[in-house]
Amino acid sequence: MARPRKWRRVCGLPEIDSFGPLNRHIDKNHLIIMSVDEYETIRLIDLEGMTQEECSERMHVARTTVQRIYSDARKKVAESLVEGKMLKIEGGDYELCNGYDKTCGNGKCHRRRFGRGGEF
Q: I want to staple 92 with a disulfide (CB 3.0 to 4.6 A). Which of 3, 9, 12, 35 is the partner?
């Protein structure tokens, strides 16, 4: 029996969840699905400048899990850019933070800064 997957803590959903070429008809062969937890690793490591260790603490998972998720996410971004495929962010094993958790951003929670009205 497989071990249940651990929920990853995410501080917010992306404002825009689809990216890709504007001049191409998109079909299933030209679509890449990135999970919300993969998006969160890209945001925390590449945008916020966190280490994989800091990212793992924020997401409440092991560093090796973050390393795998991050590697998968970067491959999807590269495939989208190089091959001109649409990138869609959806799904995954995640839970949203409540926006006020002290372990989430040390008071600088992404959800609190960029959350949509009435969501928290």
A: 35
